[in-house]
Design goal:
Pantoate_hydroxy_MeTrfase, cytoplasm, eight-stranded parallel beta barrel, pantothenate biosynthesis, 8 strands, 3-methyl-2-oxobutanoate hydroxymethyltransferase activity, alpha/beta, TIM Barrel, 265 residues, Pyrv_kinase-like_dom_sf
Amino acid sequence: MSNVTTVSLQQMKQQGEKIAVLTSYDASFTRLLEDAGVDVILVGDSLGMVIQGRESTLPVGVDEMVYHTACVARARRRALLVADMPFMSYSSADQALGTAGRLMKDGGAQMVKLEGGATQLETVRQLCANGIPVCAHLGLLPQSVHRLGGYRVQGRDQEAARIMLEDALALETAGAQMLVLECVPVALAGEISQALKIPVIGIGAGAGCDGQVLVLYDMLGITAGERPRFVRDFLPATCSVAGAIRAYVDAVKDGSFPAAAESFR
């Protein structure tokens, strides 16, 4: 199978083929993701919580993201490799260029992901102008958890929904080549997915998105604490990590994940 690129992801959206995305933070899990046919691997700053045991993603630094991205890159064969830009590492376009440059040159990332809407448009334009593919992120923004007042569904009222749709369209115009929607009502996520030409990947955003992403440790049921509503544990039915990852990919591809109970209205 040929390597996944931003172009092939665009083609998948156009053809109605769902995109399967999972996080990974090391070489061993990356090999399992590749064997299962995952399309996109995200080295998420979620590593701060699931690897480092922190309460949020905020303490994760650029050096840590580069290290884990490089670990994943060594085992990556086909999937597109995306790396999160950590908190306060892209406060200006110039700083963002430096961070993205490290993630790509030293870490081996093929795309970087950043959180935020209208305030990030100039940064997205500058990154794209310098040949750096960008994945945007709207809805629940983990790096803004304190401003948002916790991990809550976003875009439920009419004004918030309008702003999110406008931000999504503006990010696409600025050059973003993919968008993640987190904890967004099903109807709004579907509307945004249909309005954009770029692939829209949901996490707690319903089955109307062009693809789905979960934190690997969540879908294996090994994350400590209460499991978010949008997470499904794929391990018990398969009895192996490799089988659980394959089951997740299959469920995303055939549209059976997420179900209504794993989505928000």
